Amino acid sequence: MRELLQIFPELRTWVQTLDLEQTHRLRQSFEKIPFQEWQALKILSQQVFKKKSLSAKRWTQPPCFMLQDRQIQSTLWQQAESRGMQHLRHGKVAALTVAGGLGTRLSFPGPKGLVPVTPLKRKTLFQVFAEKLRAIERLHGVRMHWFIMTSSDTHEATQEAFQKNHWYDTQYLHLFQQGVLPAFTMDGMCLLTHEPGVNYYPDGHGGVFKALVSTGCVDKMSAYGIETLSYFQVDNPLVCIGDCNFLGLHLNRMSDFSTKVVTKTSTDEKVGVFVNKGDVLQLMEYSEIPGYLSVKKTKDGQLYFKLGNTAMHLIQRSFLEAMAEKKLPIHTTYKAMQYWHPLLQSHCSASCQKLEYFIFDALPFAKNPLLLEVDRKEEFSPVKNGHGQDSLDTCVKDQINRWNRWFANCGLNVDLGDKAINNAHRLEISPLFADDYVSFKKMWNALVVKPNCFENLYLE
Ligand code: UTP
Fold it and tell me: Which atom of ligand 1 is nearest to 97's Cα?
């Protein structure tokens, strides 16, 4: 207790009121983290809103395979696709989803993976991903292992939902829990629970490296012969898992860590951008990039730093393992949080400092990292907010528009007009029918009896 009071002397009067058992519980909870780490975290928590002054002297736009390169370098693309496909068919690829976040902005009651996201069937995000994996298994005749990172906040509910839904017909599922970090009030007091104990929170998506190793998942991957992880966040139902083109480019480059990017739409879009600092590829979070750089334009009026992060990565297993040994920086995010205030003896809700590791801090350690631009309309529409940009509403519209576009591209009479969604048909296509335009076209053409009404059409 001496150590706890050394770091938080303001708790002394309250601690003196605790009985033996409560004192013991509080100490045990505090000791989850070594004393030196507490000291460092406390110092960090006292630097509220202090922005690092960044020298942007040698920052440049990093190289990236852009969409138009596909036509120009079609042979390279085809070779990459066939190499990627072989890798996939040999069982060397698994899916890795990070699903431990608190989802504060969306404020959905439960893990985000359980948000009903599709327009007609109201399938959850987890079900959509499960169907994508089953489709890959069917198409390529391979087992798709699926590793899902949960947190103390989402684990039980996630497990229950999978159990209740017969594991969404997936057979090779591995749920594992990430680590924790404490959070702080704005004046540097750690958040507590009523029990009493320290209130710990998930340690950010960057916690995935340590969690995969400490829970034995990396050993499992190695035993199954998995070499590459197709990593994605739980909030994007448009994700293309195990994309063979992307896989092939990643393997040909001998990259440790590759990322799909989308062109940033406006200066204020809340998306991290890739930057070369000297020769080192890094990601600047939207909250951390200096303002004058986020508005910097090229001569032809385009954003200079425009390569937006989709958080769809390919990561080599060996790299994951190596990163678990490294100490990543800790970032502070500001979120409304609830906690027990020991001095007021009541529950409070206030904006607090949440500490997190970010996965992209691994980038500077990665060999030959690769960026690939993808079509946002086809692959990226995350559910982040309760309303407005990147909300459930925009995501449903984006799915509907995508499927309507497929019909239109096949020459079918789907009039999207100018105001796409207003004229689009409310329909749904399961990944089990097709998960991209090329396979959709093939499947549609092969249908013997074709439906002639698109409204409320469901294809599986
Ligand atoms: P976000 O940055 O969107 O955070 O996470 P969030 O916690 O889900 O939502 P907000 O910011 O509170 O509204 C991006 C991805 O990283 C996962 C999330 O589940 C999501 O898939 N994540 C985030 C974790 O797995 N663990 C964490 O500790 C944080």
Answer: 21
